[in-house]
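Lab notebook, design round three. We kept the backbone fixed and only want residue identities now. Task for the bench partner: fill in a sequence for the structure below.
Input structure tokens:
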């Protein structure tokens, strides 16, 4: 990347759009004056020095890179002519061919970050159209490295699968945390103690898995082989259908992502 890059985020007032904006500003990928953001109602008091607008086409005209951060069901109404510019979608389900046709560009990238971008811990898979060159790819890598970790994947089918696996972001660990907290409270622990215990467990586990070379399944096996309380819990959870429930949930998310693409 060379020179002054101008980025526009359609939906910049939303949770994910705001997280991406904060990340690219913090990383110095774009300066505040070269960042444009759109909103639908109530201009946010964030990102001083940046340009806020309710006109998405005005945002596109001011930008070199246009990031689409709106709900998939709202996207068909975003009638923005990108004029051949780089368009990056963070929407689930919307396919590259549809992005190119809808926004009149051959330079489109389909990505799927998650809500952990807010703390620069998102995992973002992405795939680009044939019109996207290496300079554009460098921009995509820089943006999503600023949000966490990114990978260019081989196919849109990979993106559809990862919609469930990683696109849901904190939702699945939060589901586990909620179940564990509820159980702790039912067994008499104070709610604030249960919360601190479970959150420390999950954040510590994340750091441990990040720093150790073993596969998570190897760590599980170590606990099972020890034949203690953890092994008893794991075996009971598996007998109750834990692995099957996870597989069915991911399958449902994959089917939903494909169906959203079929409808676009």
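Proposed sequence:
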């Amino acid at each position: 990347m060379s020179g002054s890059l101008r980025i526009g985020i359609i939906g910049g007032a939303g949770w994910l759009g705001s997280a991406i904006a904060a990340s690219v500003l913090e990383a110095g990928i774009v300066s505040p004056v070269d960042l444009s953001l759109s909103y639908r109602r109530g201009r946010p008091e964030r990102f001083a020095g940046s340009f806020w607008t309710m006109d998405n086409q005005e945002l596109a005209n001011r930008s070199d890179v246009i990031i689409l951060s709106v709900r998939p069901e709202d996207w068909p109404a975003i009638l923005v002519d990108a004029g051949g510019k780089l368009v990056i979608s963070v929407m689930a389900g919307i396919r590259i061919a549809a992005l190119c046709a809808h926004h009149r560009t051959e330079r489109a990238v389909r990505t799927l970050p998650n809500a952990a971008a807010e703390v620069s811990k998102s995992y973002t898979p992405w795939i680009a159209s044939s019109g996207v060159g290496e300079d554009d790819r460098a921009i995509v890598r820089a943006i999503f490295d600023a949000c966490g970790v990114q990978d260019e994947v081989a196919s849109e089918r990979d993106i559809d699968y990862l919609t469930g696996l990683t696109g849901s972001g904190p939702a699945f660990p939060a589901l586990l945390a909620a179940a564990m907290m509820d159980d702790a409270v039912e067994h008499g622990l104070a709610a604030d103690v249960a919360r601190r215990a479970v959150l420390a467990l999950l954040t510590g586990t994340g750091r441990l898995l990040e720093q150790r070379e073993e596969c998570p399944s190897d760590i599980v096996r170590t606990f099972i082989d020890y034949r203690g309380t953890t092994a008893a819990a794991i075996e009971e959870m598996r007998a109750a259908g834990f692995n099957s429930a996870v597989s069915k949930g991911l399958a449902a998310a994959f089917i939903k992502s494909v169906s959203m693409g079929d409808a676009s």
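Keep this in mind before ordering anything: Residues 48 and 146 are 20 Å apart (CA to CA).
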